[in-house]
């Protein structure tokens, strides 16, 4: 079926072979599904490895900003064959990552436009985020939830997911006031009323789900025009103001939404969560978008995913990742959009 071809093949209509090939190799190396990495790249950069955000230093397929990239190379560069680059990067007491030699710094940052490197890092990010969310929510995250962690940081995503399950009708703007103030289309309806936690969750995960669906359908039809890079727009029309009252493993995907540039959005949303970040409990090959203070993308995303100076360095312990469940069962139609806790292998391999 179409899903299997998207999940397991680097040949995707409308996607340059060198891009899909790089993503396919990253999926094999990190264990994250091909369609997750493809969808995330589609959202972040419209599959343009040269994409540059207008409001930040975010660049490349997955829109790394300078500090996030330097942190990533410092932490995991050696395992990726970039030991020389990793050795050139130092971490200051404030949590900033610096390179003494300007020429070397430029060379390191230039690697963001290498599709293979960007895809590898994004796959590793998803893997560590999945471990973190499994630990804090008690279930394997769906791919839409993984994207929410990419977007909001895993701590913010974990709080949102847990709130959906415990108090879904709560005011999301009250939970994330800074993010809501800066991103009214996400947290408020057109009439000005605040959205619930569940509605915000659905709105964010729908961005991923609908883009993924469009890519799956694209396998069986001619490629559609691709949005301009850096817009952060999803294929389709604006979502309605309302959303399902509670999450369900079998509910239909919400209508497509348009969200401002994700690089800038991430900085604002993360700023709403300013508690000390967790510390990784082990050396993380997969902590590709993270610094040494967090398990995946945590509260220090505020400093690393923005271009401001003086990142904090406080830390708390990261909960030990729980075991990731696995089970074999046939792919069902709703599995295109939601992955239950029993679908762990599908999450990491692209197979249901």
UniProtKB/TrEMBL annotation:
Range of residues in the leader sequence: none
Start and end residues of each Transglycosylase SLT domain: 23-75
Highest taxon in the source lineage: Bacteria
Region listing for Disordered, in residue ranges: 220-252, 307-328
InterPro entries according to UniProt: Lysozyme-like_dom_sf, Transglycosylase_SLT_dom_1
Compositional bias (Low complexity): 237-252
Pfam families: SLT
UniProt family annotation: Belongs to the virb1 family.
Protein name: Lytic transglycosylase domain-containing protein
